[in-house]
Amino acid sequence: MTGEAEAHELLLRLAGRLPGTLLWRLRDWLATGGQASVAAVLPRELLRRRVGLTDAERELLVDSAGAWGAKPRLLDAVLPLPAPEEAPVLFTPDPVLDTAALAALAIVRNHAGTTELRQGRRGAQRVLVVFGGESPWLLTGTLQRILRAHGDRTPCVEVLGTPEPSTAYHRAAVSGSAALWRSPRLATAAS
Q1: How far is 70 from 73, CA to CA, in rounded Å?
Q2: What share of the chain is helix, strand, coil (3-state, %, to 5)?
């Protein structure tokens, strides 16, 4: 895994545990080559917000932010966590294809490796969930910028590697969302 892939995976695992305003900014920096910013901000925010990391998450942090210059003493100070503490989150399906969703759809279906686009709401917040895709951190950044251009101040985009999400947050996001698009490859494989 590259540092970007590891940072993307860590930021996915932190969804629901860090504020959306912080996550979208970190994801945007990651997508635009701001690895030094991610390395400087992420460990400090984990400490400031007292968000602990599992051993696997700590490895992702060290292999990404640590490789990009995060201070070892900050990385070492992040709280240990035996298992992620995940508060229940309620999502509701949103099948509406407005201009923002149509723009996202055009990007997703033309991005190599994507298999599905889903849309839900967490309160008033739109949440896009994408399965698959090469360089998921770049796809996340592109989709976030599209949502911001359409008026979403804190865009929430979750680009997952597999259709079997590993966190409770993402399982809830998938089950509480509506499918906007599925790859024709999936329909062919199912028949």
Answers
A1: 9
A2: 50, 20, 30
pTM flag (> 0.85): yes
Amino acid residing at 112: A
Torsion of CA 141, 42, 171, 180, to 10 degrees: -10
Q: Among positive and negative, which fits the CA dihedral 146, 149, 152, 153?
A: positive
pLDDT tens for 79-130 read 999 987 777 899 999 999 999 999 999 999 999 999 999 999 999 999 999 9
Interatomic CA distance for residues 113 and 132, integer angstroms: 5
What's the burial of 190, exposed, middle or buried (CB within 10 Å: 0-12/13-18/19+)?
Answer: exposed
| Other beta carbons less than 10 A from residue 52's beta carbon | 16
Which residues are registered as beta bridge partners of 80?
Answer: 53
User: 16 burial class (0-12, 13-18, 19+ CB within 10 angstroms)?
Assistant: buried
CA dihedral sign, ordered 32, 35, 40, 43: positive
Give me 168's structure tokens.
């409770």
* Cα dihedral sign, 96-89-22-9: negative
The per-residue pLDDT for range 44-65, each reduced to its tens digit, is 999 999 999 999 999 999 999 9
91 and 177 Cβ atoms separated by less than 8 Å: yes
